[in-house]
Specification:
14-stranded mixed β-sheet; mainly beta; Acetoacetate decarboxylase-like
């Protein structure tokens, strides 16, 4: 789920050396619910219970030294182990949450209740639509989804982790019900307009360790 947002509203939330990336003269903010399977460290087997989890992130798009990436404002997850690991090794703002996902044919019902402060919640029902063409490098879809690194900050130092994955196989989606308080903890009002929606089936993703870049 993506919305346009004034970059000036995001500027106080992101370290000064990091530039807010814009498309069509606008910054974008996203709420992205998803599920992970087979999560594991490199060369280790997936462990039942610890390797599958639901997660939702709130993010925007940035660049540093001309390298485009993702800036996460929050990440809510059902795995306590994943939350602890991501906080420790990636300096990311992870939170423990209860998340329920139900699917009935092409309809998905996703509900989140954060278990920590600041309190936040999310509930949406959407229908999966038809396949979209492959995203072209100059398209909005490419700008929003084809990001191959994440940035984080810790003790006034900036870090980057590379992310490798195939291009997302995007599909259309249509939301029929939507409630969210995921942006309010950031001091941002939830957008009133209907979000730009995309859906994607699963792909393999590799995330590398953090490297200091600033």
């Amino acid at each position: 789920m993506h919305w346009r947002i004034d970059a000036r509203l995001l500027r106080p939330l992101i370290p000064a050396p990091v530039a807010i990336d814009e498309f069509d003269d606008s910054a974008w903010i996203a709420v992205v619910p998803f599920t992970m399977w087979g999560t594991r460290p490199y060369l280790f087997p997936a462990v039942p219970y610890f390797s599958s989890m639901h997660e939702l992130n709130v993010r925007t798009y940035v660049t540093f030294n001309s390298v485009p990436g993702v800036w996460f404002f929050s990440l809510d997850c059902t795995s306590r182990a994943a939350v602890l690991g991501a906080r420790t090794f990636y300096h990311l703002p992870y939170y423990n949450a209860n998340i329920e996902l139900a699917q009935n044919g092409d309809q998905l019902d996703y509900e989140l209740r954060r278990k920590e402060k600041p309190v936040a919640g999310f509930h949406a029902v959407w229908k999966i639509g038809e396949d979209l063409p492959r995203s072209e490098p100059d398209s909005l879809e490419f700008f929003l989804t084809e990001r191959y690194c994440l940035y984080s900050e810790h003790r006034e130092k900036l870090y980057r982790a590379d992310i490798h994955h195939p291009m997302w196989p995007l599909q259309k989606a249509e939301v029929s019900s939507f409630e969210s308080t995921m942006l309010e903890p950031l001091g941002l009002a939830s957008p009133a307009e209907t979000p730009l929606l995309h859906y994607a089936e699963s792909i393999d993703v590799d995330i590398w360790s953090l490297q200091r870049v600033g």
